[in-house]
Design brief:
Blueprint (H helix, E strand, L loop, with lengths): L2 H7 L5 E7 L5 E7 L20 E6 L4 E6 L3 E6 L2 E4 L1
Antiparallel strand pairs: 1-2, 1-5, 2-3, 3-4, 5-6
Length: 85
């Protein structure tokens, strides 16, 4: 799934649940949100995550930012709907 498509699905700061495979091969279920600016310094990242098909989200349980590889997403649950990839 492409980053821009996922951003449309979860836009507006909606809380969503995503199931995906981490870089180490472990499956992960995360409650996340986009559009969070807590702790952002304005310095920016040293790379463009979109070019690597990564989505930057705020992990609601860990209370920190995480990257989701959009190529390994299995499902997204948002507003009572489940979207399978």
């Amino acid at each position: 799934m492409r980053v821009d498509l996922i951003r449309k699905i979860v836009s507006g700061g909606k809380i969503f649940t995503v199931t995906f495979t981490k870089k180490n091969g472990e499956k992960r279920v995360m409650n996340a949100r986009t559009g969070v600016s807590k702790g952002v310094t304005g310095k920016g990242m040293s790379y463009n995550p979109v070019s690597k098909n990564l989505l930057t989200v705020y992990d609601m349980q860990k209370r920190d930012y995480r990257m989701i590889n959009c190529n390994t997403i299995e499902e997204i649950k948002v507003l009572g709907e489940t979207i399978y990839t």
